[in-house]
Write a structure and sequence with these properties.
Layout lengths: L1 H24 L11 E8 L3 E2 L4 E11 L3 E11 L3 E3 L10 E6 L3 E10 L3 E10 L7 E11 L8 E9 L4 E8 L9 E10 L15 E10 L3 E3 L6 E7 L4 E10 L6 E11 L5 E12 L11 H27 L2 E9 L4 E6 L11 H14 L8 E7 L2 E7 L3 E9 L6 H20 L11 H9 L12
Parallel strand pairs: 2-10
Antiparallel strand pairs: 1-3, 3-8, 4-7, 4-9, 5-8, 6-7, 9-10, 11-12, 12-16, 13-15, 13-17, 14-16, 17-18, 19-20, 19-23, 21-22, 22-23
């Protein structure tokens, strides 16, 4: 009986297996999850930077696969000339800072999930004494911890430090002190100072673009009408230079300063304006050297003529000053703000509603708009039937309307007014906050100027 039962059990088992076979045949084993992996990338928000500018670097850790990264260490390293602003770092919520200093930071991240991108931002400042014309590299590295032997991911990005690749110079020949009536040869030179051998791939980064050279010439120098005052160049590549040459004849008396200045602006490879750079040649007119003893007789013969010429040179400016009639004077800060406006016989009054004054003020602003940091130069313009003399100084612009006389003779007086303002308010003028009350001596100084208090015959000294 037991044998029959056992045989029956085997028969039932065979039937069950035969019935289930088709269903089992249609099934396959479940796939195992894909391995978790990641990539690393870094980018900078600019291709070039200057001293004291900020470069923002962005680092990405991109996770993919079927799980998560349990523990990842990310670090960030900077080349010299770059300083990390640790207080401004931005990290993913899954990460924390392990250590950081001026050129290095390390972060540790936990449970970075697949399908997500984790972003770090790191502001970096270019050092104030950074070396010009070189590439500075930032490097990011990431490594998974606790995963056995692994290869770290590394990414790098370079930024060019472009700091004043152009040098500006003004030279004069002869180099000795100028004499009345002498001829001086001037050279204004702009040179790209990157003189070392440059990789062809780096030439574009080290080239100056849209170069603009503005030249200011003292009114006491007579130059030709074709002498250029503005030169523009499309570019200056490494080691290239450009010069402007001209001749000036000294038309000044002994002791007068004469000058030639130049202002430079250009763009870098990222179309950012660099400058203005300013330089100036200036010297005082000197008396001719004494004649040798063997020329005593010649000196005696021509002494009367020499005395007459010198007297004419000395007296002419004094007579020219006496013939001047100054009607109005404007004192303007280099920012374009009107500080003071005075008229003959009036007290300090801006008279903003006066159409003539307003028009004159606009004309003055238009006239000096492109002066940059030009200093100690005098120009003339005509306005409403009158002549105006305009002195463009380092911090101030002084304009005077003249109804009688030659504005040229105002040059020494206007320079003296500028120096008086410098002595009275030098510190305030450098970074003026716009408050006219902080320049309380401007009114008295201009009133003295209108009254002739700065004439040489009234005791003015250089």
């Amino acid at each position: 009986m037991s044998r029959l039962a056992f045989v029956g059990f085997l028969i039932l088992l065979a039937v069950a297996v035969d019935t289930a076979a088709p269903a089992l045949a249609g099934r396959s084993a479940s796939p195992s999850p894909a391995a978790t992996t990641y990539t690393l990338a870094i980018a900078a928000d600019r291709r070039s930077a200057e001293r004291n500018e900020t470069i923002t670097y962005t680092i990405w850790v991109n996770v993919s696969g079927g799980g998560s990264l349990q523990l990842v260490r990310v670090n960030f390293t900077l080349d010299p000339d770059l300083t990390l602003v640790a207080a401004a770092l931005t990290l993913p919520s899954a990460c924390g800072t392990s250590t950081s200093n001026a050129t290095f930071a390390e972060w540790q991240c936990s449970f970075l999930r697949s399908g997500r991108s984790y972003r770090f931002t790191a502001p970096v400042v270019v050092d104030a004494n950074a070396t010009r014309g070189r590439s500075r590299v930032a490097t990011a590295q990431a490594i998974e911890l606790g995963a056995g032997t692994v290869t770290p991911r590394i990414a790098r990005v370079a930024v060019w430090i472009l700091i004043g690749v152009l040098e500006l110079q003004v030279t004069a020949l002869p180099s000795s002190a100028p004499l009345p009536g002498s001829q001086i040869y001037f050279n204004v030179n702009v040179t790209n100072i990157i003189r070392t051998v440059v990789d062809p791939a780096d030439v574009q980064n080290l080239t100056a673009y849209n170069v603009r050279i503005t030249i200011g010439i003292s009114p006491l120098l007579d130059v030709g009408t074709t002498t250029p005052r503005l030169r523009t160049l499309p570019y200056l590549a490494p080691s290239e230079s450009y010069s402007v040459n001209f001749t000036g004849i000294v038309n000044a008396t002994i002791g007068d300063p004469i000058s030639v200045n130049a202002t430079l602006l250009y763009d870098d490879v990222a179309n950012r304006s660099i400058g203005p750079k300013f330089t100036e040649w200036v010297d005082d007119v000197q008396a001719p050297p004494p004649l040798r003893s063997d020329l005593t007789s010649v000196l005696a013969v021509f002494s009367f003529a020499v005395v007459a010429i010198v007297a004419a040179i000395v007296i002419a400016p004094i007579l020219g000053e006496r013939s001047l009639t100054i009607d109005e004077v404007f004192l303007v800060h280099r920012s374009g703000v009107l500080i003071q406006h005075l008229r003959q016989g009036s007290t300090p009054d801006l008279r903003k509603d006066d159409d003539l004054v307003a028009s004159m003020f606009v004309a003055i602003q238009d006239f000096v708009r492109d002066s940059f940091h030009t200093k100690a130069t005098l120009d003339e313009l005509s306005f409403a039937g009158r002549k105006a003399a305009v002195l463009r100084g380092r911090y101030l612009i002084l304009a005077a309307l003249v109804s009688r006389g030659n504005p040229r003779y105002l040059f020494p007086q206007m320079k003296a007014v500028e120096r008086a303002m410098q002595r009275a308010h030098g510190a305030a003028l450098v970074d003026w906050d716009g408050r006219v009350t902080s320049l309380d001596q401007a009114g008295p100084i201009l009133q003295s100027f209108l009254a002739g208090g700065f004439r040489r015959m009234r005791g003015w000294r250089r």
